[in-house]
Amino acid sequence: MAACRKNVAGATLRGVLWVLALLGGIGMWAVGASGPAQAAEIWHVGTWKTAQTIQPFLYEKYAASANPGLKVDVRPFTNPADQKSALLAGSLDMTGTTLALAIQAASRGEPVKLVATLGSKCSALVVAKDGPIHKAADLKGKRIAYVPGTMHEILLRELLQREGIDPDRDVTLMRIDFFDMGTALAKGNVDAFLSGEPFPTQSVMQGFGRILAYPYYGDSIGTINSGMLMREDFIKEHPDQARRMVAAHKAATEALVADKKLWLDTASGLFGVNRGLLEASASNIELTWDMDDAFMLRLAALGARMKALGIIKQEPDYAKLVDRSFVDALRTDAAKHD
C-alpha cells in the first residue's frame, strides 16, 4: 500500500508539474504573440549638441506613432571623425557628419552611405571688431583659427584662394577648437576664425567680433554643410528600419522648420544655449533632409574643390556614396498627399 501511495503521489506531482509547465508555455506564447514581451526597438544615432544638428534628439517624438515602443539612443559628439568611427565600428546605426568627411570616407573606400542631409549654411568668418581687417584680401599675413577636416576648412581655403591668397604660405592657419576660437580672438592670439554658429554670432554679441563674410559661393559649393550617414551593411540587413529612420529625420526637420519657436526653445532647453543667441544666429542656419539634383551638383563641386586643395587624392563615386532611395520615396509619397 505504501508503495502504491508513493506511486500515486509521484504521478500526481508529475501531473501538476506538467500542467504548470504547459500553462507557463501558454503564458509565454501569449505574451510573445501580443507583443509586450518583445524587446523594444532601439535606434543608435550620433549627432552634435547644436541647433543646426538637433533633429536626432526629436526622432523618438516624431516616429513614435509609426514605431510603438521605439527608443532612440542619441549620442552627442564633438568630432565628426569620431562619429564616423563609431558608425563603422557598429555602435551607431546612423550618424550626422560633415559632407566633407563623408566624401573623405568614400574616397578611401569606406562602406558608408549618405541617406539624408542634415543642415546647410551656419559658417561665418569672424575678425576683431576694431581690427585692421575690412575685406578678405586683408587676411594675407594674418593668423586664422580653424579645425582641419571640416566644412569650415574647405570654405576658408576657398575664400582665401579666391582672393589670391595661398592658404599654406600667405597666412598662418592655427588649429583651435571651436569652443576656444572666440577667446583666442578676444585675446589677440589670432586675427580671425572661421567656424559654425553660434560662435560667430556670440563673438559679435559679446562685443569683440565682427563677421567679415559668410563664405558661400553659389557658383560652386553653395551652402551645403552636413548629412546623415549609414553603413552599407546596415541598409542591406535592415532596409525597413533604415527607411523609418530617414522618415523620422524628415518629420523632425519639417516640424522644426515650420515652427521656429519650437526649434529655438527646444535647442535652448536641450543644450543650455542662450535663447537670444540662438535667435540672433538662426538666419545663418538651415535644417534640411532632402537630396535633390541640385544637392548632387553641389556635393560633386565640393569633392572637386577638396581634390584641388589636396585634401583627397581622388573623388569618390557620388552615385555610390549617396543613397537617395529613401528621400526620393518620402518626397514622392508627400507629393501624393498634397
The protein's oligomeric status is single chain
In terms of DSSP E residues, the strand content is: 15-25%
Q: What structural category characterises the helix and strand content? A: alpha/beta
Q: Radius of gyration, rounded?
A: 27 Å
Helix content: 40-55%
Number of separate strands: 11
Specify the biggest β-sheet.
Answer: 6 strands, mixed
Order of helices and strands: HEHEHEHEEEHEHEHEEHHHHEHHH
**Strand order in space, largest sheet:** 2-1-3-10-4-11
Low-confidence stretches: 1-37
> What's the helix count?
14
Net shape: globular
Query: How many angstroms separate the termini?
Result: 85 Å
Q: Mean pLDDT, nearest integer?
A: 89
Can you lay out the helices and strands and say which pair or pack?
Elements: H1 2-34, E1 42-47, H2 59-63, E2 71-76, H3 80-89, E3 94-98, H4 99-107, E4 112-121, E5 123-128, E6 143-146, H5 151-162, E7 172-175, H6 178-186, E8 192-196, H7 199-205, E9 209-213, E10 224-231, H8 232-237, H9 239-258, H10 260-271, H11 275-281, E11 285-287, H12 293-308, H13 318-321, H14 325-337
Parallel strand pairs: 1-2, 1-3, 6-7, 6-8
Antiparallel strand pairs: 3-10, 4-10, 4-11, 5-8, 5-9
